[in-house]
Amino acid sequence: MTDHPFDVLVVGGAGVDTTVYVPELPLPYADTYAVPPVVDRIGNTGAGVALGCHALGLRVKFVDLIGDDPQGALIRDHLAARGVDFAHAPSEAGTRRSVLLVGPDGRRLSLFDPRAVPGQRMPRDLYLPALRSARHVHVSIVDFARHVYADIPDGTTVSTDLHDWDGENPHHEDFAYSSDVVFLSATKLGGRREEVMRAIAERGRASVVVCTDGAEGCHVLAEGKVRGFPAEPLPGPVADSNGAGDAFVSGFLYGRLADRPLEECVRLGAVAGAHACTSEGTHEDPIGLDALLGPVS
């Protein structure tokens, strides 16, 4: 621990979510819907993992490209208020944004504006010092982050979240095959779930592949075996499923960095994900360490 100033370096993936609570999903066509107040909040996957790990007491550094715009200011202010160490450089296309339609049951539809700039790269001096002094690196699947892999020191573990990858989109391959721990969602995999999980391990360096499946729990490939794990019960009424996957990653990484057994890492991820479903917004109320560990510890 003393040799590494940071437990986790998170690379890329901050944005702003505009949340719209709608009466149902899918939303039938109509000229106008009256909705509750529309809210802008910090969002996107990298911010969720950084905030989630920070809330669990891990020493976090977060680096990203964001716009010099009101959305970028919202991100900077939110992270500063939470005490997250955040370094950033400007993105000429502006800050990533999402419009989230959230139904009464907490399910969401995300309309994502990546603000991608072809060929864009993160300045090496922005991330290299932290990269060389972090125990673990989590790389978000924004295009410019893929170039960071070449600079990750030998012996430093790496994770990524492929989200709803279909197993075929080439954008995800560098991330899938260059990470030690790979998370993804079962959403687009159908009957190919195990096939895709095994392909990630066989073609890349992953020792653990975790495929989350909402209320059905998750499936984990490790040591050549795929095992199913149940979801954890929600600690309260469902409010909003946004951020549950990022919370799962944070809880899992806490367990892994604490040298917990794989089964316990999965359980901690599931507890964090369940907590996220009971709070409005994507990353407004990440679970704390006492709530994560609960009476069992």
Automatic annotation (TrEMBL):
<dbReference type="InterPro" id="IPR002173">
    <property type="entry name" value="Carboh/pur_kinase_PfkB_CS"/>
</dbReference>
<dbReference type="InterPro" id="IPR011611">
    <property type="entry name" value="PfkB_dom"/>
</dbReference>
<dbReference type="GO" id="GO:0016301">
    <property type="term" value="F:kinase activity"/>
</dbReference>
<dbReference type="InterPro" id="IPR029056">
    <property type="entry name" value="Ribokinase-like"/>
</dbReference>
<keyword id="KW-0418">Kinase</keyword>
<dbReference type="Pfam" id="PF00294">
    <property type="entry name" value="PfkB"/>
</dbReference>
<feature type="domain" description="Carbohydrate kinase PfkB">
    <location>
        <begin position="8"/>
        <end position="138"/>
    </location>
</feature>
<keyword id="KW-0808">Transferase</keyword>
<protein>
    <submittedName>
        <fullName>Carbohydrate kinase family protein</fullName>
    </submittedName>
</protein>
<feature type="domain" description="Carbohydrate kinase PfkB">
    <location>
        <begin position="191"/>
        <end position="284"/>
    </location>
</feature>
